[in-house]
Write a structure and sequence with these properties.
The protein is an alpha+beta fold. Helices cover about 40% and strands about 25% of the residues. The protein has 13 helices and 25 strands. The strands form six sheets. Strands 1, 2, 3, 4, 8 and 9 form a six-stranded mixed β-sheet that branches. Strands 15-10-11-12-16-19 form a six-stranded mixed β-sheet, sandwiched between helices. Strands 18-17-21-22 form a four-stranded antiparallel β-sheet. It is elongated. It starts with about 20 loop residues before the first strand and ends in a 5-residue tail after the last helix.
Length: about 575
């Protein structure tokens, strides 16, 4: 196969055929926004009522109602509509409202957004760039693409929300340096560090929480007013109204309920502090200090809160960039990317994967193939081998997470590579390849190099991370990293010892005639010592016993090799 090389910007556009106008969509938790680009300028599409924010609310009472009308129904009857469905995208096939799944509900929102765009542009719209939180996992990303397909949209690219915001802010226009994108929306929080060099956007590190956003501040307000509430949705809408009003006023009241700015800040402080804790971890991941960040772009409606802005300014030691509408900025960036994919762009986006990807090896150890914060798209491969004599199949168990042991990571799926020739342990060479595309979706393949047999799977797990799982995985890794490594080293020592026991016992069955009886007795005695030592948790003793047995069996190994060579050469002339 030949690889054709072209000058930058001269390659044919992969999505240019028959695409008149591609749109950018910010499919949000609380509100969604759709935009397009005209002559390089992104423009937000507004509804007939002149608003750009379309509530991500769907009602199925009489047909399908989306947006403001569905929100009005929700205010009247909290059981009449569904909102914040984005929070359920990690479990896309599980019904969450009237037997409707998150994918189906999201598809209805996207259908409505598509119709708004077509009405505004006066033409059919079939292609879109859709934004997702940087911390959406493979399941949620695939679910978003599935929803778009149902809505009649071809997804040109899934782009991370922080990256879209950076595009919209114009950080690709000759500005260089490292910028933080602080995205505090209705349902999720993301922080990404982007290095900008000559039009190249490289995400250095990303972090976040899939269950931290404005909805959680609303819940604090509702609990302050009512305690546990059966009419949660209705009360949340009032709480949101109060919260938004207090971005510009000191007090709020509807005659019955009251809230002042100081009380709101007291209620939300712990949540806002949680965002800067995540920022601190991301800076640590990137080996950077707050003083090395050139600017902080604020994204998401929750960043309108004065306390959020003050907290961010204090943490990064610089005033955040707030001169663009934080509710619209993500959709505007998506529109620019859509235009670039269909009409050409000099901007190169290098996003990263949020969590490490790897496979299970002997002893329940995770071998990471693609570390977290690796730029995508990426393809990496690693060779593995068989553990037992005559092994003809290999189970590939794909995992996601930062911990060292399988039990502490998330299973993405598994498949079997069969047809491996029967060989001695360690002789087979199996190449396992991980490929993550520009949308963050993973494909895993395995090939036995001697025979060429192969197997491939697109990893689309039937379930996603629960609401707190993702942030817990990173937190656990931070807290348990040292203990995990000690446990991994212990397991590795046991696996090596058990392999030595297995191979030596097999060799003694076949070639014990090469040894004297006293030599066999010594080896068998040391085998029993190692077997007993392996049962303990003393890694040093296991390694010491393994080393002693290995050294004492070297003469036996040499005898076996000489005998094998002799058998091969009998009756032959050199």
């Amino acid at each position: 196969m030949l690889l054709q090389l072209t000058e930058p910007g001269m390659t044919s556009l992969p999505h240019a055929e028959d695409v008149h106008k591609a749109i950018g969509i910010d499919l949000g938790t609380t509100n969604s926004v759709v935009a397009y680009s005209e002559n390089g300028q992104p423009i937000v599409i507004k509804t007939r009522n002149g608003v750009s924010l379309i509530p991500s609310v769907v009602s199925y009472n009489e047909g399908i109602t989306v947006g403001v009308d569905a929100l009005d129904q929700l205010k009247q009857d909290p059981k009449s509509a569904i909102s914040s469905v984005k929070r359920f995208m990690a479990t896309p096939s599980k019904p969450v409202y009237q037997d409707k799944t998150p994918v189906e509900i999201s598809a209805d929102i996207l259908t409505f957004l598509k119709a708004q765009a077509e009405q505004s542009l006066g033409q059919s719209v079939t292609h879109a760039v859709i934004t997702v939180p940087a911390y959406f996992d493979d399941t949620a990303r695939q679910a978003t693409k599935d929803a778009a397909k149902i809505a009649g949209l071809t997804v040109l690219r899934l782009i991370n929300e922080p990256t879209a915001a950076a595009l919209a802010y114009g950080l690709d226009q000759g500005i260089e340096g490292i910028y933080a994108i602080y995205d505090f929306g209705g349902g999720t929080f993301d922080i990404s560090l982007l290095k900008l060099t000559h039009g190249v956007f490289q995400v250095l590190a990303t972090g976040g929480d899939t269950n931290l956003g404005g909805d959680d501040i609303d819940e604090k307000i509702v609990n302050h007013w009512f305690g546990p509430s059966e009419n949660w949705r209705q009360h949340q809408l009032i709480a949101r109204q109060a919260k938004e009003a207090l971005s510009n006023h000191e007090t709020w009241s509807d005659g019955k309920l009251h809230l002042d700015l100081q009380t709101l800040e007291n209620l939300s402080l712990s949540l806002i502090e949680k965002t800067t804790q995540i920022c601190s971890q991301v800076l640590l991941d990137a080996n950077l200090g707050p003083d090395e960040i050139k600017g902080v772009v604020m994204v998401g409606g929750s960043t309108r809160m004065p306390l959020v802005r003050a907290h961010v300014a204090e943490f990064f030691k610089t005033d955040p960039l707030t001169d663009m509408n934080p509710d619209e900025i993500v959709a505007l960036g998506a529109a620019l990317q859509a235009d670039g994919l269909t009409r050409g762009s000099n901007t190169l986006l290098l996003d990263v994967i949020p969590l490490s990807l790897g496979i299970e090896t002997m002893g329940g150890i995770v071998e990471k193939i693609i570390p977290r914060n690796t730029p995508i798209p990426i393809t990496l491969a690693q060779e593995f081998t068989t553990y037992q004599e005559g092994q003809t199949a290999l189970k590939i168990h794909v995992l996601q997470g930062e911990r060292e042991l399988v039990d502490h990571c998330r299973s993405l799926g598994e498949f079997i590579l069969s047809g491996i020739p029967s060989m001695v342990a360690g002789a087979a060479r199996v190449e396992i390849m991980f490929a993550v595309d520009a949308d963050g979706l993973l494909t895993v393949s395995a090939q036995e190099k001697m025979t060429g047999i192969s197997q491939k799977v697109e990893v689309k797990p039937s379930y996603g991370l629960t609401e707190d799982d993702l942030i817990r995985m990173l937190k656990d890794n931070s807290e348990q990293g040292a203990a995990d490594m000690q446990q991994r080293l212990l397991v590795e020592a046991r696996v090596e010892a058990e392999g030595l026991i297995m191979s030596l016992e097999s060799a003694l069955k076949v070639d014990s005639h090469l040894l004297k009886l006293e030599e066999i007795a010594v080896l068998r005695q040391e085998l029993e010592v190692l077997k007993e030592t392996v049962k303990t948790n003393d890694r040093d003793q296991i390694e010491l016993a393994s080393k002693k047995l290995s050294e004492n069996s070297q003469n036996f190994a040499a005898m076996r090799l000489n005998s094998s060579i002799y058998q091969q050469l009998v009756g032959k002339t050199i």
